[in-house]
Amino acid sequence: MNALFKSLLTGLLLLPAVVFAHGASRLQVEETILINASPETVWAAIKDFDSLHKWHPAIEATEATGGNEKGATRVLTLKGGATINETLKKFDDASMTYMYQIDEISVVDQIEYEGHSFDVPAVPVSKYKSWVTVEAEGDRTKVTWLAKFFRAYTGKHHEPESLNDDTAITAISEFYKSGLQNLKSSVE
Questions:
Q1: Which CATH number fits domain 24-187: 1.10.3720.10, 3.30.530.20, 3.40.50.720, 3.90.550.10?
Q2: How much is the average pLDDT of 71-82?
């Protein structure tokens, strides 16, 4: 019994080290909006992988290759000139859904933190994947934009504020909300 107690106590003492050793946690943001239009009308407005600049106010231009085929790529130019490179991973026209990932984000700043230099990307995330889904909800249409990602700083120590979880979540949430609100205004 004494050996069991010692083992249990040792395990509990080591638990914080194991928890903090893995680095950043995976984050998630999901935003939805209801639009007074048919699902087909809303889907037609957003389904083309090369059309984000047409309905999202933060996107200056979209340069894409590959249409809506798996593996298609696009470079988004944000207002201010920063870029985001993305790849279409799944596209289902019948189900009105697609999934894409960010491959590269341009650096917009560099900061010093605890004696180290860190690049600050235009969008403070890493390992980002996103799903866009359009579906009927009564006589309206629900658009869901879901992202799973990590913060920009993927180290195991205290992270700079501009690269932490809260900053990443806020950036994606605000980006999604402004895009969905603009989509609603333009479709209705």
A1: 3.30.530.20
A2: 97
